[in-house]
Amino acid sequence: MTSRQLLIAIGFSAMANFFWATNAIVGKIAVVSLPAFTLSQFRWWLAFLLIAPIGIPHIRRQWPWYRTHFKTLLLLALLSVTLYNTLQYWALKYTQPVNVGAMAALMPVMIFMLSAWLGIGRMSVAQWLTATLAVFGAFVVLTDGQMALSIGGQSLIGDGIFFIGLISWSFYSVMLKKLPVWEVNSVGMLTFFIGLGSLMIVPFWLSGALRGEILIPPTDLWWTVAYVAVFPSLVAFFSWIKAVGASNANIAGLMMTTAPLFNALLTLVVLREPVSAAQWLGIVCVIVGVALTLLLTQLRQKAKGVAE
């Protein structure tokens, strides 16, 4: 890997994580007056309209593959587009973006843990220790250094909702590894996920009418729908693909540790909300813990390759 390739990988992966962080910020602004399911529904509908002209031709050419794996793809769309992304908006109604960022950075660690629990992969003692450091850091952020959860508090409700979303995404990631995704075009598969996932949001979106919620975003909030449909949904995805293509998934994975930092900075600048010293310390623990876990994983893979 050349220095130029490394810089491209770092730049594009940082861009992807930045736009994913802004998703939490814009989502926090929107859910004050816009129901989570309405925001999610229109986000993915608009994203689908934008990507469909590029993705549908790939789906048509490779339709036998989609037909063969349809049941698995349906479940993956449910876990990712329908559940994870919608639950994030719902969580933001109760909790802060800095909490969401710290928990989102735990994703690689949660995927490793889930894989180990399912017997798909193993984690060394060192990896368990670094993962514990990351989890400890997230707990410090969530409790603001008090090390005790306020049962029944609004923030705890939001953190709990997003934790369910993280579990959903972790299962999605583990299941995706078992699918021969290299056989199809990545844009086509993203289009397929968005199309299926947005359809499965419809019942939850329409149920809002029974609760007296608005089903159509008001004019002054369409900018939030447009933003989350374009930047966190599409631009971030293509930036991530570019980052992985310029180097490898390990570099891009390590850059995921920038998520809580971006969330904290955007919380300060955009929302004008304070981030305590304890939360900054927790963010550092999350970043170091996740980075070390990923680095140890990379070293184990290299050692296994040499042994073989």
Describe this structure in words.
It is a single chain. The protein has 308 residues and is mostly helical. The chain is 78% helix and 0% strand. It is globular, with a radius of gyration of 19 Å. It starts with a helix and ends with a helix. The chain has 13 helices and no strands.
* Beta-strand content bin: under 5%
Shape: globular
- Indicate the radius of gyration in whole angstroms: 19 Å
- N-to-C terminal Cα separation, in Å? 23 Å
The topology string of helices and strands comes to: HHHHHHHHHHHHH
Structural class category: mainly alpha
- Outline the biggest β-sheet: none
Short structural summary:
Helix content is 78%, strand content 0%. The chain has helices at 3-30, 36-61, 63-68, 70-92, 97-104, 107-117, 125-143, 154-177, 186-207, 222-246, 249-254, 259-269, 277-307.
Chart the SSEs and their pairings.
Blueprint: H1 3-30, H2 36-61, H3 63-68, H4 70-92, H5 97-104, H6 107-117, H7 125-143, H8 154-177, H9 186-207, H10 222-246, H11 249-254, H12 259-269, H13 277-307
